[in-house]
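Supplementary Methods, section 5.1.

A reviewer requested that the exact input to the structure prediction be made available. We therefore reproduce it here, unchanged from the version used in the analyses.
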Amino acid sequence: MRRITLLTILILLTYVGVSQKNADIGFIVGGATYLGDVNTENPFRTIKPGVQGFYRHNIHSRLAVRGNATYARIGGRDNLSDFDYQNLRGIEFDADLFEIAGMLEFNFFRFEQLPRQRFISPYINGGIGLMTVDFQFNSNFREYFTIPFGVGVKIGINERWAVGLEYSFHRTFRDDLDKIPDWLYTSSETYPLKQRANVQNDDWFTFFGVFLSYNLKDCVTCPANL
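The structure derived from this sequence is encoded token-by-token as follows.
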């Protein structure tokens, strides 16, 4: 096992060293929100801070692979809901999320940071990730997985620097981000089954923000990969 782990690390280091000829590093500063039993209808309710660092290898002027490390805080308040059963339930929660993910990114237009040229392109991305909640671990490995996907726009400032906006959804495979056990609330005559957690719908979170990236390619006057 140790030999396999060491070999994997060496391969990744070699890949990173080669990829830096046309790669970006950057970070996104923004906010995160939660969608689940406490917030079922508004993806912009209860915005909490979040930050993400990323490394992106540009395979082609329209295609890239990317690795993300994201920290986000999420929260929810039943008393902000328009539904009476949530106002009566009165749940409040906050949670810290940490996610690492691998993504494939597609630019709608050719994006190359070349001298005397400033490019702009909208893009989409998607991939698979692993997540912890409140930096705790459990025995159900399936609950660590996430499926992140998003949209954005990038603008080349010069041969090295770019800025942009990004908005992403993160589908999780767990129903406890809001910390409502499915057995805690019993059915009531007025709101049957409404005050319990809906175990058939897993929780989501969103992340959005402004990013700044720096291109690592060795020669800024050379054409980008076509």
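The first strand starts at residue 23 and ends at 35. These observations are discussed further in the main text.
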